[in-house]
């Protein structure tokens, strides 16, 4: 089983800061954590003063990629190229939290309902009203964070994937579903700074 660790998020912050201001933040050194291959997602959230998190970007891959290359690539892709949001700016970084999810245990579901809330992420394949094949995914924590039932999560995921017609039971049960699990770690910007300060003091 993979072991996701805070250093993964720290490297994402290093990569993003270096990209946004390479004069102040030099290119990060090669990380020391293992360069094993995993499917992964990098998520950026805006953290309010009350601690509430608002999504600012989330992109990843279901293909196994070496962690050094994969984290650096998706740290920037999720921060700058998530089409749902404007690119993250340097001034925003102190308000960000980063999370890294390493994906494991992929299994084909027997039906669209063959998964457990809070345990499984879901990847769905379906055809839209024009017969075009589409896909979409939610990580394991999303449905619980939103307070969704399984049906609400599936309906939201269909919309995310571009389905614009009426969602019926026939549409839901026509979904091809793959379930998976993940290991996740997260760091706020302040926690990132604290780790950098502690490392510099050693």
Automatic annotation (TrEMBL):
Sequence ranges assigned to domain AMMECR1 in this UniProt record: 1-196
Highest rank taxon of the organism: Eukaryota
InterPro entries: AMMECR1, AMMECR1_dom_sf, AMMECR1_domain, AMMECR1_N
SUPFAM superfamilies: AMMECR1-like (SSF143447)
Database matches in PANTHER family: AMME SYNDROME CANDIDATE GENE 1 PROTEIN, AMMECR1 HOMOLOG
Protein name (database record): AMMECR1 domain-containing protein
The organism's taxonomic lineage, starting at the top: Eukaryota, Fungi, Fungi incertae sedis, Zoopagomycota, Kickxellomycotina
């Amino acid at each position: 089983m993979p072991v996701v660790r805070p250093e993964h998020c720290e490297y994402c912050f290093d990569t993003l800061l270096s990209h946004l201001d390479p004069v102040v933040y030099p290119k990060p050194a090669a990380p020391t954590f293992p360069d094993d291959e995993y499917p992964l997602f990098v998520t950026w959230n805006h953290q309010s003063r009350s601690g509430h998190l608002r999504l600012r970007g989330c992109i990843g891959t279901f293909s196994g990629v070496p962690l050094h290359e994969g984290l650096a690539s998706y740290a920037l892709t999720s921060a700058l190229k998530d089409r749902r949001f404007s690119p993250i700016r340097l001034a925003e970084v102190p308000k960000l939290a980063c999370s890294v999810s390493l994906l494991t245990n992929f299994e084909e579901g027997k039906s669209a309902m063959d998964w457990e809330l809070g345990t499984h992420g879901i990847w769905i394949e379906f055809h839209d009203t024009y017969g075009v094949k589409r896909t979409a995914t939610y990580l394991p924590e999303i449905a619980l964070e939103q307070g969704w039932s399984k049906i609400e999560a599936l309906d939201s995921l269909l919309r995310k994937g571009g389905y614009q017609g009426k969602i019926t039971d026939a549409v839901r049960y026509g979904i091809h579903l793959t379930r998976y699990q993940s290991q996740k770690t997260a760091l706020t910007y302040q926690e990132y700074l604290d780790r950098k300060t502690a490392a510099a003091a050693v």
